[in-house]
Amino acid sequence: MAKQALNIVKMKKMKQDGEKLTMVTAYDYPSASLAEAASVDMILVGDSLGNVVQGQETTIPVTIDDMVYHTLSVRRGATHTFVVADLPFMTYHGSIDETMRNVRRLMQEGLAHAIKMEGGMEICLAVESIVKAGVPVIGHIGLTPQSLNQIGGYRIQGKTAEDARRLLEDAKALERAGAFAIVLELVTEEVAAEISKQLTIPTIGIGAGRFCDGQVLVYHDILKYDPNYRDKKFVKTFADIGAQIRQGLEEYVSEVKSGQFPAQQHVFTADENVIPELYGRRKAESRA
Q: Annotated binding residue at 285?
C-alpha cells in the first residue's frame, strides 16, 4: 500500500504528541524521489534554489516561473509526500490579486500542497487572505533570506530581549492569521524553544536549536553535494556524495582518455554477415 502524504491536521497532532517533523529542501525529481524513499515527512521546494541550483549569490533573482518549474519536478518525484513551495521575492507584497495569481500558479501548475512565506506581522493580511482561499501556509521568521539587504546579511536572530519579543509577536500573529506551521531560521535556541512552547502550531527549525517541533535542512547540505561546500555550524552532513561524484567523473575521464572505456562488455555486435554484405555492396557501387 502506497504511503499517504501527511496533512496539516496530522502535523498539529504530531506536535501535541511530541513527535518530531522532518523536512528536506529539495529541487528536482531525483532528489525528491530519494527523499520520499527515505520517509521524509515534508519536502520544501525553497527559493534557495537560487543559491544551490542556479549559482546565484542570493534568493532574490528567483522568479515565480522558476518556482513553478521546480515544484512540479519535485511533485513528479514525490507523489506521496507533502510538498511546500516558496513564494519568491516580491510575489506577495503587491496587490492581493497579484499575490493570489502567484499562489494559484504554485498550486495549479506546480501542484504544491502548501506555500511558504517569509515575514511576520507585515504579511499577515496576505496570509489570512490566502488561507481563506483554501491554501495552507507556512510562515518563516528569524533569518529571512529575501530580506538580506535589509537585515544586514546572515545574522543570528533573537540575541536580544527586544529581538526575541519581536520574533514571538511575529510568530503569534502568523498563527492568528492561519499559518499551520512556522519555520524558524537562525534563531537562538532559547527563543526558538519559547516560541515553540507558546504556539499550538508546529515550529520547524533550521539553525534554531533542539527544541523546535521539527527540523529542515537542504538536501545538498545533508549530503555535501556541492563542489564549493562550506561547513555551517547548524548543519550536520550525513554523507559526502560530492567527493564520490567527483571521483567517479575523474575515473570516467581517465578511462576514456586511456581507451579503457568503453570495453568489450559495453559494446553491441552485429550479425556476422552484416559487414561482408555491407563491404560487398560498397564494392559493387564503386565499380558502377
A: no
- Predicted confidence (pLDDT) per residue in 90-144, tens digit: 999 999 999 999 999 999 999 999 999 999 999 999 999 999 999 999 999 999 9
Q: Print burial letters for 209-247: b (CB count within 10 Å at least 16), e (below 16).
A: beebbbbbbbbbbbbbbeeebeeeeebebeeebbeeeee
User: What's the pLDDT band for 151 if we cut at 50, 70, 90?
Assistant: low
Instruction: Work out the angle at residue 187's Cα, subtended by the Cα atoms of residues 211 and 152, and round it to the nearest 5 degrees.
Output: 170
Q: % helix / strand / coil in the chain, to the nearest 5?
A: 45, 15, 40
Residue type, 206: I
Residue 288 confidence class, pLDDT cut points 50, 70, 90? low
Residue 19 labeled ligand binder = no
- Whether 189 is catalytic: no
Residue 225 is predicted with a pLDDT of 93
Looking at domain 8-239, its CATH superfamily turns out to be: Phosphoenolpyruvate-binding domains (3.20.20.60)
Residues forming CATH 3.20.20.60 domain(s) in the chain: 8-239
Which entry of 98, 185, 251, 272 is annotated as an active-site residue? 185
The count of residues in the chain is 288
Q: Is 86 annotated as a binding residue?
A: yes
Q: Is 159 annotated as a binding residue?
A: no
Considering the entire predicted model, what is its pTM? 0.92
